[in-house]
C-alpha cells in the first residue's frame, strides 16, 4: 500500500495509516505473528511512519516524534520513571486496596 501513489485530497499521514491498517488486517487474519507481537509492530510502524510524514498545515515541516523520543530518552536516562513508581508505592502503601481506593497514609 505504501508503494501506491497517494490519492488526491488525502494527506500523506492518512495514506500511511491506511497502509498500516491493511498490514494489521493481513497479519491478524493470517495469524502470521502473535497478537502481542503484532501490537508492538503496529505501534512502532505508527510512531515512525506518522512521525516522519509531512504536517498537513505546514508541508515543509514533519509531524515528528522527535520531541517525544527525546523526552523518553531523558526520562529513561535520569530514571524518573523509577522515582515516580517509588513515590506512588510509598503514597499508596503497595496494597491493592490502597492503589484502587487511593487510601493515603
Characterization of this structure:
The chain is mainly alpha-helical and 105 residues long. It has two domains: 1-64, no CATH class; 67-105, no CATH class. Helix content is 65%, strand content 0%. It has five helices and no strands. The protein starts with 11 loop residues before the first helix and ends with a helix. The mean pLDDT is 76.
Low-confidence stretches: none
How do the SSEs run, as a string of H and E? HHHHH
The main β sheet shows up as: none
Structural class: mainly alpha
Number of helices: 5
- The fraction of residues assigned to DSSP E strands is under 5%
Which structural traits does this protein have?
mainly alpha; 2 domains; 105 residues; 5 helices; 65% helix; flat; single chain
SSE inventory with pairings:
Layout: H1 12-30, H2 35-51, H3 66-78, H4 80-92, H5 96-101
Amino acid at each position: 500500500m505504501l508503494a501506491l501513489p497517494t490519492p488526491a485530497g488525502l494527506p500523506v499521514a492518512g495514506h500511511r495509516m491506511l497502509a498500516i491498517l491493511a498490514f494489521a488486517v493481513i497479519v491478524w487474519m493470517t495469524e502470521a505473528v502473535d497478537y502481542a507481537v503484532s501490537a508492538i509492530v503496529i505501534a512502532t510502524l505508527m510512531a515512525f511512519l506518522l512521525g516522519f510524514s509531512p504536517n498537513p498545515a505546514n508541508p515543509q515541516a514533519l509531524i515528528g516524534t522527535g520531541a517525544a523520543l527525546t523526552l523518553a530518552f531523558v526520562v529513561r536516562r535520569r530514571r524518573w520513571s523509577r522515582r515516580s513508581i517509588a513515590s506512588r508505592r510509598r503514597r499508596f502503601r503497595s496494597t491493592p486496596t490502597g492503589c484502587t481506593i487511593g487510601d493515603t497514609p
